[in-house]
């Protein structure tokens, strides 16, 4: 394997152990295992696309195998009902400037292209859509205030 340890570009964000930033992913415990895994993965991808600095650190092992780290901080996977997730979305709206919010409405599972999802989304209201999951990234105090009452998904 090539030993290219050239760092990938990282946005200058308060990440990699610095700054006050917390992540959380909330998912419905009622989802089948495959749907649950897909929901968490797509929400994590959305958070990572917005905050590439939570990963994107090249690491090389003793044999020169290079990978990117998965994340530079814990990402708890919490459980909530669709109603609880929508309540979090509503409360998060007041903090949009300081908070990244990613949602996975259930109707998205039936669509097979991003273009279809982007076209369908403005015709829907999250208040009436079943939610599979929600992801948050923002100041620790804010994320904890939105998720503090939720239990870990087990």
Quick structural gist:
24% of the residues are buried. The protein is of the alpha+beta class. Mean pLDDT is 87; it is low at 1-17.
Structure description:
With 154 residues, the protein is of the alpha+beta class. It has helices at 33-50, 82-92, 114-120, 140-147, and strands spanning 22-27, 58-60, 66-68, 77-79, 100-105, 131-138, 151-152. Strand 2 and strand 3 (66-68) form a beta hairpin. The longest helix has 18 residues, at 33-50.
Going by helix content, strand content and strand pairing, the class is alpha+beta
SSE order, one letter for each helix or strand: EHEEEHEHEHE
Identify low-pLDDT runs: 1-17
Helix percent reads 25-40%
Mean pLDDT: 87
Principal-axes geometry comes out as: globular
| Rg value | 17 Å
Largest pleated sheet: 5 strands, mixed
Number of strands: 7
Q: Major sheet: order of its strands? A: 5-6-1-4-7
Strand content bin: 15-25%
State the end-to-end CA separation: 37 Å
Q: How many H/I helical runs?
A: 4
What's the structural blueprint in terms of helices and strands?
Elements: E1 22-27, H1 33-50, E2 58-60, E3 66-68, E4 77-79, H2 82-92, E5 100-105, H3 114-120, E6 131-138, H4 140-147, E7 151-152
Parallel strand pairs: 1-4
Antiparallel strand pairs: 1-6, 2-3, 4-7, 5-6
